[in-house]
Hints:
The protein has 329 residues and is an alpha/beta fold. The chain folds into 3 domains: 6-75, Winged helix-like DNA-binding domain superfamily/Winged helix DNA-binding domain (Arc Repressor Mutant, subunit A, Orthogonal Bundle); 81-185 and 309-327, Nucleotidyltransferase, domain 5 (2-Layer Sandwich), CATH 3.30.420; 187-307, Nucleotidyltransferase, domain 5. It is 37% helix and 27% strand. It has helices spanning 8-24, 29-36, 40-52, 120-133, 166-174, 183-193, 241-244, 251-265, 279-289, 308-328, and strands at 26-27, 56-62, 70-75, 81-90, 93-102, 107-114, 137-144, 146-149, 152-156, 178-182, 201-205, 213-218, 221-222, 269-273, 300-304. The strands form 4 sheets. Strands 6-5-4-7-10 form a 5-stranded mixed β-sheet, sandwiched between helices. Strand 5 (93-102) and strand 6 (107-114) form a beta hairpin.
Amino acid sequence: MSKLGTGQMRLDNYRKVIEVIQQDNIVDKKQVAEKTNLTVATVGTILNVFREKEIIKEKSKRLNQKGRPTVQYQLNPDFFHYLNLIFYKKESENFLAIEVHNAKSDCLFQDEQKMTELDESTLKTKLLPILKDDPDIQLIVVGLPALISEDSVIESDISAFKGKSIKTWFEALFNLPIIVKNDMNLCALGYYEQLDSKEDISYMWLPEHDGPGCGTVINGKLLEGRNQIAGEVIYLPFFNFLKSQNVTYTEDIIAKTIVSLSALMNPSQVVLVSQQLHQKDLIKIKSICHQYLPANFMPQLFLKKEYLNDYFKGMAVTATHFYWMQFAF
Length: 329
């Protein structure tokens, strides 16, 4: 695909405009100029380039009381598609959720399959027909219940992935750009994206039979750290995971985890996702937190029973941001 221009300032302007079009769906030059602080002339030039490259399409013309009609534009949903793959474990069996989305993140196809094998042949059999049927797929996003460091899976609920570089493996299999993310990092991004307030958040999953996972977004950025293990609260000393290889959730342990997150990252919200906790448990957990943390430093606590909506939203945010930043321009 050809580049749309040269120079960092021009690229930055393109990205500002595409972000507005993504958020507002249908826009005209004046609206984009107001939201990007670019001149109407600059926006007009960029929109013309986008239209020539088929990134956007003319939606309609709105008649004014005087002068020429105002042209409205929207994102071309088929400029690119992306494939979401969510691997997860349920009742000791491996499953794969598959979704294809367009550039507007509309879901075009979805499926869920039990994966008795997770080898090269099985993955090709499952996924190559999807890629063949939709040649507009230009990116694959993979979500894993795993600790991922420098593209290698260190720990995972799915033993077949442990020790593998999923990114390198999938790139060789499918010859497409691959993004691999920890499930809770994607959930944190998805939850944050839906917040009107855009407050700093930590998002923690407390599964009944496995160790906790956590993702944190500060100042709009996902915290990953030097080895991409920031937020792996399972390594906090009171879990003693490396020695015991087992986790027992108590109100005291959960409270100490929240205090640790607050002391180190100071989020405004901590979201707990758990099937076992109830609202009355949050009162006790908050009380324990106050033994260690001044009340004015205490984050708001929220309880959720499931995380799939946040997960899918996080994948959409990751895919579209990566594509526009890396490839479109």
